[in-house]
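Weekly sync, protein design subgroup
Attendees: M.S., D.O., the rotation student, P.L. (late)

Item 1: inverse folding check
M.S. brought a backbone from last month's batch and wanted to see whether the design step gives back something sensible before we order anything. D.O. pointed out we never logged the input encoding, so this time it goes straight into the notes. Structure tokens as presented (346 positions):
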């Protein structure tokens, strides 16, 4: 009963969040969160650094995903020290990898690739869990911990699509380019991005053009997948939870790129699509390297107890702040600011 209540509660939160986000975030006012003045060459006009809602939503999604890992692992008795080590190492690798992989694949120095970060994290996560377990006790076993990470990734990636909607990146094909039958069905669901600094506007020339809402479909699909896999985990089905979270997300990523208009690299099949297929195959192979072993049955109350500690709360805040600083400081947009005295207030 506790599992059902939890899943319904999380479903309601995500439903209302997405319902609001899909309406408002494509608008121009939901890209820039703040502009901070840094220099004034002429003493009057300041050059500013922009902080974006892209960074804010990424920070929320990373923090939410981390909270899910802690909750699920705590429910099977995994120690806090072990979790702290695994999560810190994974985030310490994956956050920089989002930039490094984009530089290698897209030849761009000022962009981020979540797909690249996921690819690196997927390949390394089993061995990080195994290595940390040599030094710190891991009561849960490798597969259950990987299942918790898989569930957390699906939810975090789903919520993270709100960042893409806000910035106007990862945008879909114009609905006008579809066959008439599909165009008629989908035209009322399209995303029209407004504002010259949205990526769909400056990179694709699609300002105000209804586009396939690929980001919204991804957000909903991944979140439903995460909640289903979370229920499997809490009922003790660790391997199905792992495979569900990984296969659904990676196979959809492969297919969804055919629906997108943004730059995906050269060739019919992009490098990121190749990475997603490798991740899916890798997940299928994991049970052969790490056979499932019986362990403690998940306990929802133990999971909440693991979350509700000062150390965990501070750690989640740190994850959010670091992620916001790394992904929210925009390198591809700038701002000019002027300050003045409001004479009517003197």
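Designed sequence read out in the meeting:
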């Amino acid at each position: 009963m506790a599992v059902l209540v939890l899943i319904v509660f999380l479903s309601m939160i995500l439903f209302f969040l997405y319902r609001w986000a899909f309406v408002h975030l494509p608008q121009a006012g939901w890209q820039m969160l703040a502009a901070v003045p840094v220099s004034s060459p002429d003493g009057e006009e300041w050059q500013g650094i922009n902080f974006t809602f892209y960074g804010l939503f990424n920070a929320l999604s990373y923090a939410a995903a981390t909270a899910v890992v802690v909750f699920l692992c705590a429910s099977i008795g995994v120690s806090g020290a072990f979790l702290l080590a695994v999560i810190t190492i994974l985030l310490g690798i994956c956050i920089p990898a989002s930039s490094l992989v984009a530089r290698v694949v897209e030849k761009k120095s000022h962009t981020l690739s979540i797909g690249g970060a996921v690819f690196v994290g997927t390949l390394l996560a089993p061995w990080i869990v195994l290595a940390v377990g040599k030094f710190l006790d891991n009561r849960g076993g490798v597969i259950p911990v990987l299942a918790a990470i898989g569930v957390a990734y699906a939810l975090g990636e789903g919520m993270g699509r709100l960042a893409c909607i806000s910035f106007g990146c990862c945008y879909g094909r114009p609905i006008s380019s579809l066959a008439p039958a599909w165009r008629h069905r989908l035209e009322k669901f399209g995303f029209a991005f407004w504002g010259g600094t949205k990526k769909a506007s400056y990179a694709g020339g699609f300002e105000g053009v209804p586009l396939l809402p690929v980001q919204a479909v991804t957000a909903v699909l991944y979140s439903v997948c995460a909640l289903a896999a979370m229920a499997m985990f809490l009922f003790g089905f660790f391997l199905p939870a792992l495979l569900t979270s990984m296969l659904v997300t990676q196979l959809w990523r492969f297919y969804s790129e055919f629906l997108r208009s943004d730059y995906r690299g050269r060739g019919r099949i992009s490098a990121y699509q190749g990475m997603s297929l490798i991740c899916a195959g890798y997940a299928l192979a994991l049970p052969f390297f790490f056979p499932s072993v019986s362990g403690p049955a998940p306990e929802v109350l133990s999971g909440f107890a693991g979350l509700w500690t000062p150390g965990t709360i501070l750690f989640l805040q740190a994850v959010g702040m670091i992620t916001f600083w790394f992904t929210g400081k925009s390198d591809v947009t700038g701002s000019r600011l002027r300050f003045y005295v409001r004479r009517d207030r003197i």
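Discussion: The chain has a mean pLDDT of 88. The first helix runs from residue 2 to 24.
Action: P.L. to compare against the previous round before Friday.
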